Amino acid sequence: MATPHINANKGDFAKTVLMPGDPLRAKFIAEKFLTDVKLVTDVRNMFGYTGYYNGRKISVMGSGMGQPSIGIYSYELFTAYDVENIIRIGSAGSYQEHVDIRDIVLVQGASTESDFAHQYGLPGTYAPLASFELLDKAYNIAKMNGQHVHVGNSLSSDVFYNFQKDSWKKWAELGVLCVEMEAAALYMNAAALGKQALAILTISDSLVTGKSTTAEERETTFTQMMEIALEFAE
Question: Which residues does UniProt call coiled coil (predicted)?
Fold first, then answer.
């Protein structure tokens, strides 16, 4: 049965969904890595696909940009389509000199300046965390493949163009590795609904060194994080 933002049928999605922000990156992953691929949703051109990777049924779908967007799609996948695991695969900006462009970050905790958690009426500040089961699998697969990954805290920000130009340095001083715009909301939805989530990020640019990658590179060449996610997705 379709939801307001997804027009797939019940059973069209696998238990695990890989979720890049860009729907064109979802298309790239489906066409490059999956077999017997089927487009299962295309509302607002937010493409979702289901296919097979090494005989395992896997889905991939775009989330859009920002916590409100991934909050909508992850909620509908978790509650209406029996999805158990969502693995965000996306890009991030580095806050640390040792976290270079094209490095991979496994997001253990997702700090945020968003008010997304306000809906839960909590008497304090909630700390959104990854599923340890998924994090452990991703870390060990990367290690087995000889891939160096960073594990730690990221910032899920609602602001891309921040008028306080140096505000990122305060997060960096507390060891936050990088910034992106979605993980915290995904982790909160998963926690509230008894599901599992993990964000695997590739560094696209550095606020420390000024180095960056192109939009085309971000769409088509950040394959290591995709391969890590695919190896343990089931």
Answer: none
Residue (of 220, 180, 154) closest to 67 by Cα position: 180
Distance CA 181, CA 169 (A): 17
Query: Is 205 labeled as catalytic in the residue annotation?
Result: yes
Annotation: binding site: 5, 21, 25, 44, 88-91, 180-182, 204-205
Q: Annotated catalytic residue: which of 12, 136, 166, 205? A: 205
Q: Tell me the pTM.
A: 0.96
> Going from the N-terminus, what domains does the chain have, and what CATH number goes with each?
16-232 (3.40.50.1580)
Contact between residue 152 and residue 105 where contact means Cβ atoms under 8 Å apart:
yes
Is the torsion defined by CA of 97, 211, 95, 17 positive or negative? negative
What is the separation, in whole angstroms, between the first and last Cα of the chain? 23
Residues annotated within the binding site for phosphate are 21, 25, 44, 88-91
